[in-house]
TrEMBL record, chains A, B:
InterPro entries: D-Glu_cyclase, Putative_hydro-lyase, UPF0317. Its EC number is 4.2.1.-. It comes from the Bacteria. It is an enzyme of class 4 (lyase). It comes from Streptomyces misionensis. This is Putative hydro-lyase FRZ03_30455. Residues 1-20 are annotated as: Disordered. Gene3D superfamilies: PSTPO5379-like (3.40.1640.10), PSTPO5379-like domain (3.30.2040.10).
């Protein structure tokens, strides 16, 4: 589904873990595109989906009913492109790349959606697994897609989400290869952050999720799975896009998969506390 | 605010931790009333608030914006008194006691709300801290209100919730006295269950939440705080009722504080996994 046009137009070296979220948003606003994995270390990244107000209740309910793929971090007031999660940010310009959907069909992938914005749009910011990659790194888990300068691989699974009104669709997952000796740490680290998908939904054989070929992701790029590594699958915030594709609301705006919104929130804010 | 009429009409001994949720619901349907703390060990209890469909989006958004007091476990389809959380249950009859609200005023406290039910009502089931009391007991924390055969004390705090459209109001908390040597365990046990309010919002001096007198709770009954014990405050699912009182929607149905809905869900389903 993704083509080479979604490959980074800049190299991984040009995007930095040392950027503040504000700097990252400014660079993306100025036209920089590409995956945001590895950018602005320790800051929470978010998926974006904006729908017309008459679809907002069903989208919020869809998220409530499917909290693993759709953990809601913020919901904007209708028409407002601002969020409490990032001071001074404009959701219409500050992501690297967007997708525009009409009747469930992808019609454009601009770097700015001001021309598409509507006064009745309600935007949902949904947790992203890029957030816990810093914890994985600290736990000794390689982040293969960052190592390889690629977008994380994402797959449409055979697991249906629980529908909400007119919205239904399959769960989407992201995949990271994990050495068996690091599997416990990877599960623990991600489980501590349920607001960004929490622990994995599946480990091992991709067929367990109805995924036929790890080498052909539905979104993003394939990555190398080394001998002995276990593919580990986390629920993914691209799931609402799959619901848009399946349920065909008249209009929706989303981020381009892997090209997220950088919030000012720190991962620690979402980390469970009081646990040894 | 609570009077003696809300004291248990049966003794604690007449309600049993050994009941299945189905048995508990049948007893309450048959007319038994009183607090549900200590009933149906290991099963998830839920707060109820039902509002007309044209308030449902704001209620769901209010819950999303205030996840500590309002962790949503299920949302029903408009008019339906059933939930995926309890097979064969009827939300109109299966709670011990209800509250009926008109324009933000409490107008009735029946044991059955079939006469008040409307086809446009959307019911929200919200996690309840009674759920993690079993974990507290295992961790050596006394559950004073159960020991004393009373309803848990609940207090309206000076902490405002984040508003959602027409809905706003203060956070409500429940209080349990905890011996200092058990405080770590109490925090850990409850933190593992974020779907039922998670870790406490405050420990110690009640003035930190604007609570003037622990002996005069806004809902439920006072309990004894022994010498040296620390009052520990958890966010409470009565918070939506405080929002109803403050925001005055034309109509709402809720449970009576402390008299919860017993679901078939087991606490383990909501417990974070993969954490040492």
């Amino acid at each position: 589904m993704q083509s080479t046009e979604d490959r980074p137009v800049t190299t991984a070296e040009e995007r930095s873990p040392y950027w503040s979220p504000r700097t990252a948003r400014a660079r993306f606003r100025a036209g920089l595109t590409g995956p945001t994995a590895g950018v602005a270390a320790g800051h929470t990244q978010a998926n974006l989906i904006a729908v017309p107000a008459d679809w907002a209740y069903e989208m919020l309910l869809f998220c409530q009913r499917n909290p693993k793929p759709c953990p809601v971090l913020d919901v904007t007031d209708a028409g407002s492109p601002t969020t409490v999660l990032a001071e001074g940010a404009d959701l219409r310009t500050d992501l690297p790349r967007y997708r525009v959907w009409q009747d469930g069909e992808l019609v454009d992938e601009p770097t700015d959606v001001r021309a598409y914005w509507r006064d009745d749009l309600v935007a949902f910011l949904i947790g992203c697994s890029f957030t816990f990659e810093w914890g994985l790194v600290r736990a000794g888990v390689p982040i293969r897609h960052v190592e390889q300068g690629r977008n994380v691989p994402m797959y449409i699974t055979d697991r249906p989400c629980r529908p909400a009104g007119r919205l239904s669709g399959p769960m989407v997952v992201s995949m990271r290869p994990v050495p068996p000796r690091r599997l416990g740490a990877a599960i623990k680290e991600s489980s501590l952050l349920p607001a960004v998908h929490g622990g994995p939904v599946h480990c091992g054989d991709p067929a367990g999720l109805g995924i036929a070929d790890l080498g052909r992701p539905d979104f993003g790029d394939p990555v190398t799975v080394e001998e002995g590594e276990i593919p580990v699958f986390w629920a993914c915030g691209v799931t609402p896009q799959a619901a848009v594709m399946a349920s065909r609301p008249p209009f929706a705006l989303t981020h381009a998969p892997g090209q997220m919104f950088l919030t000012d929130a720190r991962d620690e804010q979402y980390r469970l506390v009081g646990i040894d």
